[in-house]
Description:
Blueprint: E1 4-9, H1 13-23, E2 28-34, H2 38-47, E3 52-54, H3 57-60, E4 68-71, H4 78-87, E5 91-95, H5 102-115, E6 119-122, H6 129-139, E7 146-156, H7 174-190, E8 196-203, E9 209-217, E10 223-229, E11 231-235, E12 238-242, E13 245-249, E14 257-262, E15 267-272, H8 281-293, H9 303-320
Parallel strand pairs: 1-2, 1-4, 2-3, 4-5, 5-6, 7-10
Antiparallel strand pairs: 7-11, 7-12, 8-9, 9-10, 12-13, 13-14, 14-15
Helix pairs in contact: 4-5, 5-9, 7-9
The structure holds NADP nicotinamide-adenine-dinucleotide phosphate (NAP).
Amino acid sequence: MKTVKWGIIGAGRISSTFATALNSLDNTELVAIASRDMEKAKEFADRFHIKKAYSSYDEIVKDPEIDVIYIGTLHTEHKANTELCIMNGKSVLCEKPFTINHKETEYLMNLAKKNKVFLMEAMWTKFLPATKVVKKWLQENIIGEVKYFNLSFGYQAEFDINSRIFNPDLAGGALLDVGVYLISYVIYMMDKLPDHVASSAFLGRSNVDETNVIAFSYNEGVMADLSSSITANTGNDAVIIGEKGKIVVPSFWRAESAEVYDQKGKLIDKFLLPFTSNGYVYEAEEVNCCIREGKLESDVIPLQDTLNVMKIMDEMRATWGLTYPQERNK
Ligand SMILES: NC(=O)c1ccc[n+]([C@@H]2O[C@H](COP(=O)([O-])OP(=O)(O)OC[C@H]3O[C@@H](n4cnc5c(N)ncnc54)[C@H](OP(=O)(O)O)[C@@H]3O)[C@@H](O)[C@H]2O)c1
C-alpha cells in the first residue's frame, strides 16, 4: 500500500493534535512542518519526530516529497493557504470553518477542480465511528420517524480581544468556531438541507456572535434546535427524538459513544469505541484512501456540502448584521 506523505502548515494547537493522529497511522508519514517562525517549526518537528522543518508556507508547498498538506492555521488564513497549496499541485485537508464565507469556499472549489487537486474540509466529526453508527441507526429507523434534533456546542471563554474566537479581524464568534459543527451534523443526518432557517445572535463586546440560536425546519415536520456559544457552557451533546425513542450522543462533535432509548427511557442499543490515538485519525484515513484512489473529493464530505453549510452561515450572519472586516467594501 502506498505510504501517503503529509505536510502541515501552521504549528499551533490543532496541528499538534493532528500530528499525533498522523504519527499513529500505518502507511502514513508526516514528513514536514511549516511555521512562519523557524524556532516554532523546529520545536514542532522535534516534538513529533518530523524530518523537515520550514520557516515559510511557500517552501513546504514546493517539497516534491509531499502528497497532501493539512492546514491548521486561523480561519482567516485558510483561503490563502489552500490556494497556495492548490497552485503548487498539493492535495489539501483544511480545518473548519473551511473559509470565512461561501465566496471564498466557492473560489477554492473551482480552483481545485480546475487544477485537479484533492480538497476536503477537516470536519472530523463526520468520520467518527460513533457518527457513522448514529447515521446507520437513523437509516434503519431505530427511533422511527425523526421529529426533532437538539444540539448545542458552547463553552465559556474569558474575553480576550486578541484571541481568534473574540477578534473580528480573525473572524471570531461562536458560529464559525463551533456552530459549524451543529449545522454540518444535522444536514449530514438528514441527508438534505433544511427548508427554512431562522436564527438570532448576541453580538458581544467585540461585535462577534458570543451566543447564537438556530432553528432548522424541514417541510416533513422535522425541527432542529441548535445553539452555540463562546461565553456559555451549554454543553455539547446531541439528542435526536423520533416517534419510537431517542438517540443520545454525548459530546457529539468528538463522540466515542452513542445510545438509543425507547419511549419509556429504556436503553435499547449502545455504541462505544474509545479512540486509540485520537479522533482525528478517521478523517486522516479518509484522505489517505482518497489520495491512494486518485479521488479529488471525499464522498463523505464533498465540497458542495461544505459550500452549502458556508452559505447557510453567511445568510444567518447577514440577518445578524455580522460581517468581518475582510468582507467589507468588496
Ligand atoms: N477540528 C477541530 O477539532 C479543531 C479544534 C481547534 C481548532 N480548529 C480550527 O483550527 C484552526 C486553528 O485553530 P488553533 O486553535 O489551532 O489556533 P492556534 O493554536 O492559534 O494556531 C493557529 C496557527 O495559525 C498560524 N497563523 C497563520 N497566520 C497567522 C496570523 N496572522 N496570526 C496568528 N497565527 C497565524 C500560526 O502558525 P505558525 O505561527 O506556526 O505559522 C498558528 O500556529 C482554526 O480555524 C480552528 O477553527 C479545529
